[in-house]
Amino acid sequence: MNKTVSMAAAALALVTTMTACGSGSESEGAGGGAEGGGGGDTIVLGFSQVGAESGWRTANTKSIKQSAEDAGFELRFSDAQQQQENQIQAIRSFIQQGVDVIAFSPVVESGWDTVLVEARAADIPVVLTDRAVETDEDDVYETFLGSDFVEEGRKAGRWLVDEYADSDEEVRIVELQGTTGSAPANDRRDGFAEIIGEDDKFEVIASQDGDFTRSGGQEVMQAFLSSHDDIDVLYAHNDDMALGAIESIEAAGLEPGEDIKIISVDGIKDAFQAMADGKINVVVECNPLLGPQLMDLVEKVHAGEEVPERVKVEEGVFTQDQAEEELPNRKY
Ligand code: GYE
Question: In ligand 1, which atom is closest to the CA atom of 182?
Fold first, then answer.
């Protein structure tokens, strides 16, 4: 039922965007020139966002909107509410509008070939940001700007290996996965598994999709707790799910960070607060402030300049002893 409602809302949002853009393009007609959907020299950027599922995403959207404004681009922004079909529709609409560049953060990895080929046929360069795609097609995107999610998973695993270095006892782990089929869920799972797989005292006893949301984390953790009474560690693929899970752990009369150690990914302010309060043990950073780098790449791609196929974001790992000091510096 929720799905229907959210899809209807998304369709409405799309129509609104299209109407607004339609009138924009008309007035730009006179300016014409080689600038696709844009008037004069203004770069028109169509951006399809995943949704508004997490604190990370909110910060990412803000960064993109602000940076597009700072760069003087005309941004046509569409929120897919975590539905791939909405993203495909938005990209098709950007192609129809003849925008100069399309950028998007693909909700899942597969299923993009058809629409990417359509963009290529229309000669509109595509920039991937945040999440990657799996494709059999050549030259369907110019560059991919985003974090190394496998490495993030490895960092989470390394912290755990260190934490239990002096113990021979079995370590029972539950995993809250991000959206099934998404690059960060696949890669954070694989990177973590690679590291803990080196020692068989580590065992992932349950692993399930919490869709990167607080409510997802809370519900799935509640289910984990009702079927297992011997959980040592929670590995959450993002902070929002970890924060939701903390509610369920506390509701079960257990102490998060003590009875169950918590590893999370992202580094939003709320998670730093939870770390300072002793409820999360470690956060692997994933930086959402991709806007400035993205606009830079968009400009280059539009000008026909060479760009690297892959641009990675630099990130760190933070533990409880650093949380208090780092908290005032967090921008998201
Ligand atoms: O970790 C999560 C968000 O793709 C890196 O998506 C992003 C992830 C991020 O919902 O919080």
Answer: 4
CATH architecture of 149-286: 3-Layer(aba) Sandwich (3.40)
> Which CATH number describes the domain made up of 26-146+288-314?
3.40.50.2300
pTM of the model: 0.88
For 132-184, what is each residue's pLDDT tens digit? 999 999 999 999 999 999 999 999 999 999 999 999 999 999 999 999 999 99
Ligand 1 pocket test: pick from 49, 50, 53, 56 the residue with the most ligand atoms within 8 Å of its Cβ. Answer: 56
Write phi, then psi, for 314 (nearest 5 degrees): -80, 135
E-strand stretches of the chain: 44-49, 74-79, 101-104, 126-129, 143-146, 171-177, 202-209, 233-236, 261-266, 282-285, 310-312, 317-319
Burial of 24 (0-12, 13-18, 19+ CB in 10 A): middle
Q: How far is the CA of 238 from the centre of ligand 1 (A)?
A: 7
